[in-house]
Every structure is written in C-alpha cells, then in structure tokens.
Amino acid sequence: MSESVFIGIDVASQTLEVASSAQASTWQVGNDSAGIEQLAQQLKALEPALVVLEATGGYEFEAACALQAAGLAVAVVNPRQARDFARAMGALAKTDALDARVLAAFARVLHQHPERERFVKPLADAQLQRLQALVLRRRQIVQMLTAERQRLRLSHAAARPSIERVIELLKRELGDCDALVAEHVQQQHAELAAALSSVPGVGAATVAVLLAEMPELGTLDRRGVAALAGVAPLNRDSGQMRGRRCIWGGREQVRRTLYMAALVSSRHNPLIKAFYERLLAAGKPKKVALVACMRKLLTMLNAIAKSKQMWNPAMHGG
C-alpha cells in the first residue's frame, strides 16, 4: 500500500505556499480564483488524506471552501496550535516554505488523532457565513459605542457634540444590525432559536453568537462541547503536585458570551441561581462558581439543541 499524502498550506494575502509530505520542495500559487482552481486540480491528483491550512484572518477561507468543494478533506486550524506544534518539532525559524512543511507534518498527526474534530472548526456554508458576518459586525459596533462613550466622559466640551453625533449614528447602526441578525435567525434557525431562548438568562444576542460561532452545538456530548468552548477545567498536575484547575483555549467569543449569560442566569434562572449559591456556600470563589455556571448553562443549551425542546426545569435540574 502506498503511504498517505498530507498537505500543508501557508496562507498569505496574495499567495498560497503548498507543501506535500511526499515532496521535499514546496510550490506556490496565487491566492485568487485562478490560483485556487489550479491548486485544487493539483491536489486532486495527489489524493491527500488531509489538507491543513492555518486560519489567517479570513484569507484562507476561499481556498478552504474551494478545496472542500473539490472533494478534499480540509482542516482549518488555530494559528496558536500550529505554532506550538512547530516549536515542539524544533522548527523555530519562520518562513512561508517552512510553515507549509510544518503544517503538512501537523496534518499527518491531526489525521491520526482520535478526537481531531475538536481541533477543527467546520467550514461555514453561505448562510452561516452571512450570520457570522452580521454577528461580527454587531460586535464591532458595540466596541465602537463603548469607546465613544468612554471618550464622551473624558472629552472637552468642544468635542462632545461630535462624539454625541457619532454615538447616535452607532446606535442606529446597532439597531439595524440587530434587526438583520433577528431576521436571519428567524428565517434559518427559528425552531432552534426559540428553544435556546426559552432558557432564562439567554437572550437573542447570546443565541446569535452560539448559532454563528458554535455550529456543533447539539452534536457533541457535554464534555466535548465544554472543551470546544473552553469552559472545561484543565488539570495541572505533576508528580505529587496537584495544581489548581483552570479553563483555557476554546472559542473566545463563545466563552465571553457564556460569561455574560451565566452572570444574568445566576440571578434570574432558578436552576443556575441555586447552583451558584450552593457553590458559594461551599466556599468556592465567585469567579470559580461563575465558570461552573457557564459550563452548566452550556450543557443545558447543548441538550436543548439536541432535542429541539423548550427549556424544562424538571429535565435540566441535574
């Protein structure tokens, strides 16, 4: 039997540097429609077991989608994971060719990993791309509003009228963006969104982020979905030492959204509130208790996404 071929692609705004586990040298194509089409034909002839690209601010998206559409197995990985792998392999220098070869080696390891789905975010279809773009734009507008409101507090009187006009404009843009997100969710995910929104403490903004940033919701078990979001406690033990558990990694925006939802739920969701107060009574620090609430809330939402049934305290009280 011939050995499997693995492909690594280092992505830049203008070019794609390609490495194959079966070749010593790399090659380059343009990061445009013509170059990507050429690459798809080249890779189809090689029949790779897995093609790995590093997430590069969106520059990788067209190539990843085109290669997947050509029938190739494609993984888009977190740059931090790829860089950590490179350091572990002793590849401390950084060039496009070297990065591509490291990604090809990473593809081989990832292909053998029993839980490789945890490391790879599914490629979005056209509808999911639209929702992700709207959710991202909403987040950007909220950040700009926060910045302008801070400037208003600290500004000279002469600058305040200008800042106030910008704030009003951003408020209108936020309202328009919220309306577009709500329309999209209603058209594409009405049943699921209604079920998720039935959980006390979970609002429309939380639902939109979960639908956009965690399309795997409802397809994983509770441990898998907690690890994916980055709310699963990680051990820090060595020899006789038992370190403090902590959360790390995962999807940052999902984790941020869960934090706010858990904060609200700890006051208004009877199950989460009772769970939170029980942890505090047991001596847990507030931050630790709140992270546990995030994990419990996500477990509830994952179960609801699986069943498509409305929140029921009797079912989710465990």
From TrEMBL:
Annotated Transposase IS116/IS110/IS902 C-terminal domain ranges read 194-277
Short name of one Pfam family? DEDD_Tnp_IS110
Q: Taking every annotated instance into account, which residue ranges of this chain make up the domain Transposase IS110-like N-terminal?
A: 7-153
User: Where would one find coiled-coil regions in this protein?
Assistant: none
GO molecular-function terms, A-Z: DNA binding; transposase activity
GO BP terms in the entry: DNA transposition
What name appears for this protein in its UniProt entry? IS110 family transposase
Q: Which organism is it from?
A: Ottowia testudinis
